[in-house]
Amino acid sequence: MSAADVAAPGATAAGPDVLAEPRGPKPRRISVGRIGLYAFLVMSAIFFLVPLYIMIVTSLKGMPEIRLGHLFNLPAEPTLQPWVDAAFRACTGRDCFGLSPGFINSVKITVPSVIISIVCASLNGYALTFWPYKGASFLFGVLVFGAFVPYQVVIYPLIIGLSTVGLFATLPGIIIVHTIFGMPILTLLFRNFYASLPVELFKAGRIDGAGFWRIFFHIMLPMSVPITVVAVILQVTGIWNDFLFGIVFAGRNNWPMTVQLNNIVNTTTGVREYNVNMAATILTAAVPLIVYFVSGRWFVRGIAAGAVKG
């Protein structure tokens, strides 16, 4: 008797996919637990969106309207001048060029740091999964341990080390720091992702005569898009929003956008322009938000793929 003879009565020639489809009406009963869940989600959304709303409407108001104290009111006469001032005219100390120099510096720091750290971490995860060597487990444990070391503990040794080789307060120095601190968690992500892939793919490549690099570039790398997107989002968010490493290791000429924002917001001279401060804050946070919204679905897929097994 063939498999078709014992198929379920509702089976058709369309194949087994039809059987996998849900049947019957959707449940319409709303339980107390579901109502509580939706209420919690709505409250959480309001909790995070109200500050954003206040920041946006304040950035579109003039200072006379802000002094009236109507925090939640929409702007009576909307203006984009605070955004222009935040980007090109706000004073960050003795210089009054807005956030534009900090934006350029953040790009110069983030792009190479993200690329170098992801390339190194993907190779580490691939080697630890499919090409284990003597002491690989110990090295992996050291890398994972490094992900939990507080940054403040190693700042002074890093200052001494970078000063010794002449890289302190330079662009290459801050790139090296971000690459090193991004390596542990990214290696863990890539290692777990590669461990979830069928080992038969690796064995098939070995049987066909492929070596370390050919298997990596032709088999593993094309399958690593989801976890690579996760790594990009994590690194872009962490590096772009970093303040501590930027102010310590970058040097005045390479201060990132977050340091420039701090100088704008915490200025102690002149009139405190809250509309410019709000606009500058939104501009600083815009890049990580855009990256996440553009690749959010890949982020969820990559996190799930990397958590199958470790």
Question: Can you describe this structure?
Answer:
The chain has 310 residues and is mostly helical. It folds into two domains: 32-79, no CATH class; 100-306, Orthogonal Bundle (MetI-like fold), CATH 1.10.3720. The protein has helices at residues 17-20, 32-59, 63-66, 81-88, 100-130, 136-146, 151-164, 171-195, 199-207, 212-220, 225-240, 244-249, 257-265, 274-294, 296-306. Helix 13 packs antiparallel against helix 14. The radius of gyration is 26 Å and the shape is flat. The two termini are 42 Å apart.
Sequence-ordered SSE layout with sheet pairings:
Elements: H1 17-20, H2 32-59, H3 63-66, H4 81-88, H5 100-130, H6 136-146, H7 151-164, H8 171-195, H9 199-207, H10 212-220, H11 225-240, H12 244-249, H13 257-265, H14 274-294, H15 296-306
The CATH topology of the largest domain turns out to be MetI-like fold
Gyration radius from CA atoms, angstroms: 26 Å
Low-confidence stretches: 1-19
Oligomeric state of the chains in view: single chain
For the sheet with most strands, the description reads: none
Percent strand: under 5%
Compute the separation of the termini in Å.
Answer: 42 Å
The helix count comes to 15
Question: Which bin fits the share of residues in helices?
Answer: 55-70%
The total count of strands amounts to 0
Total of domains = 2
CATH architecture of the largest domain: Orthogonal Bundle
Name the CATH class of the largest domain: Mainly Alpha
Under CATH, the homologous superfamily of the largest domain reads MetI-like
H/E element sequence: HHHHHHHHHHHHHHH
Overall mean pLDDT stands at: 85
Class computed from helices, strands and strand pairing: mainly alpha
